Amino acid sequence: KNYEIDKWGDKYFSINEPGNIAISPNGIISNKIDLFKLVKEIKSREINAPMILRFNDILKDRISKLNLAFSKAIKYYHYQNIYRGVFPIKCNHQKTLLEKIIEYGEPWKFGLEVGSKSELLIGLSLLKNEESLLVCNGYKDKKYIEMTILGRKLGKKPILVIEQRDDVKRIIE
Q1: I need a surface site. Which of 13, 45, 62, 90 has the fewest CB within 10 A?
Q2: 137-154: pLDDT as tens digits
Q3: DSSP label at 58?
Q4: Is the dihedral of CA 32, 34, 37, 38 positive or negative?
């Protein structure tokens, strides 16, 4: 069944005539790339596996579709607030990916979700738009809390997620 690619591939992935995976990075079917040929070409340049191939056009399209879906739902249901999406850094720490997510999410003030002090530093350094959210959802020790407060002073919008009563006490202190 071609690994049921028709169920998960959306308009980006398909099987071409030779039986290889074809990628349409911008979702336009006539603009397909044969993945087998692409990897073969990369190997001919003496770049060996394992390798990660990221298609920024897919990322851009998905971020756009996600935000447009929320905009449509907000309008349809007469929701009286806004949507601000965030990407959890723990899913992928790769700097170039995070930069693209922020770049493509800029029209919607897309932000980041961080769970550790190192992720918080990444978020503080990468987010430039003051309206983008920085959701802080990690263990809130004294240093983590201090870093979020300093983030406020830098013009960022870190939001501490409070999960336990002890969190409130540490934040107040």
Answers
A1: 45
A2: 988 899 999 999 999 888
A3: H
A4: positive
Both structure tokens of 32: 């397909």
**Is the CB of residue 136 less than 8 Å from the CB of residue 160?**
yes
Query: Could you identify the residue written with the tokens 């005539």?
Result: 17
Per the CB < 8 A criterion, the answer to whether 114 and 124 are in contact is no
The token pair at 68 is: 């447009």
* pTM across the whole model: 0.87
- Cα→Cα distances 75→68, 82, 84, 132, Å: 10, 10, 15, 21
Q: Is 79 helix (H, G, I), strand (E, B) or coil?
A: coil
Give me 125's structure tokens. 């350094």
pLDDT digits (tens, 9 = 90+) for 25-65: 887 777 899 999 999 999 999 998 898 899 999 999 999 99
Tallying the residues shown for the chain, one arrives at 173
Distances (CA, A) of 170 to 95, 105, 146, 152: 31, 33, 10, 17
Name the residue among 102, 98, 97, 60 with its Cα closest to residue 84: 102
For the CA atoms of 143, 150, 118, 57, the dihedral, rounded to the nearest 10 degrees, stands at 160
Whole-number Å distance between alpha carbons of 173 and 164: 15
